[in-house]
Amino acid sequence: MMMDFAGKSLDLSAPHVMGIVNVTPDSFSDGGRFFSADKALEQARKLVADGASIIDIGGESTRPGSEPVGVEEEIRRVVPAIEAISAELDVVISIDTMKAEVMRAAVEAGASLINDVNALRGEGALQAAAELNVPICLMHMQGTPQTMQQQPHYDDVVNEVNTFLTERIAACEAAGISRSKIILDPGFGFGKTARHNLRLMKHLAVFTDSDLPVLVGVSRKSIIGATLNVSVEERLAGSLALASIAVWQGAKIIRSHDVRETVQAIRLCEHVMQVSDFD
Ligand SMILES: Nc1nc2[nH]c(SCCc3ccc(S(N)(=O)=O)cc3)nc2c(=O)[nH]1
């Protein structure tokens, strides 16, 4: 199924890799004071060369316990990077933000996918997304990045996440956003214990069985660390295993730090899934 990203289209009947470019201090060795558009562009060049179809730009860390960032600062971080990447690379740029004003500035600068871990629940976010008329990824999060991992609790995590996403889709449609512009994401690591994450992965078909494409972000996350007891630097194999399990169940976008290896893994999945049974 083709999805249009402000003129660039992706065939989401096949899986794609979303490469990650963080323009946040905790992701730069120099303490982030001087993180720059050309460092972001350099990283984006590599990710595109490695096979990324989408580049996800984030100016505010949403990892558990992270500090919120003001809207002016977040815009100051992401806009130069988006402008530089958009000027040089023919790749879909997504903006990873919860703020309406950042969505507007980012799309103005060249982003054509809104990736909102808060599923447009922020002040003015629904309205902004409707006006900007670009595809939107709705992700489930319980609580906020500051609180979500304190005591995640569900009676039935798969059902509750599915119900939340269904409600957010309805809110989008009520705001005039067409279903054809919506991507769903269960939000691995956003207010979930390790078991909650494993259950969501085991039952991912609940989400991929819908007519909407599903995005999965498990790269180097605690679903791997908690299961294998390995550090962040030792999570590549686990990330590739889970990317394959997600694609096998129908996920169409895999958010990854390790694009080259992830492209190889999902390409193998595709070939196994598509091999003819006759000839
Ligand atoms: N659509 C979408 N966007 C995303 N943006 C991010 S940033 C990752 C923040 C983080 C880091 C680490 C853990 S943990 N404690 O599970 O290792 C949780 C969250 N992720 C995702 C994701 O999945 N989807």
TrEMBL record:
Quaternary assembly: Homodimer.
Family of the protein in this entry: Belongs to the DHPS family.
InterPro entries: DHP_synth-like (IPR045031), DHP_synth_dom (IPR006390), Dihydropteroate_synth-like_sf (IPR011005), Pterin-binding_dom (IPR000489)
Organism of this sequence: Methylophaga muralis
Entry's EC annotation: 2.5.1.15
Cofactor(s) required, per the database record: Mg(2+)
Name of the protein in its database record: Dihydropteroate synthase
Pathway the protein contributes to: Cofactor biosynthesis; tetrahydrofolate biosynthesis; 7,8-dihydrofolate from 2-amino-4-hydroxy-6-hydroxymethyl-7,8-dihydropteridine diphosphate and 4-aminobenzoate: step 1/2
CC annotations in GO: cytosol
NCBIfam families, A to Z: DHPS
Listed CDD domains: DHPS
Record-annotated Pterin-binding domain positions: 15-267
Chemical reaction(s) catalysed: (7,8-dihydropterin-6-yl)methyl diphosphate + 4-aminobenzoate = 7,8-dihydropteroate + diphosphate
GO molecular function: dihydropteroate synthase activity; metal ion binding
The keyword Oxidoreductase is assigned to this record: no
PROSITE patterns assigned to the protein according to its UniProt record, in alphabetical order: DHPS_1, DHPS_2, PTERIN_BINDING
Protein keywords: Folate biosynthesis, Magnesium, Metal-binding, Transferase
GO biological process assignments: folic acid biosynthetic process; tetrahydrofolate biosynthetic process
Domain of life: Bacteria
General function of this protein: Catalyzes the condensation of para-aminobenzoate (pABA) with 6-hydroxymethyl-7,8-dihydropterin diphosphate (DHPt-PP) to form 7,8-dihydropteroate (H2Pte), the immediate precursor of folate derivatives.
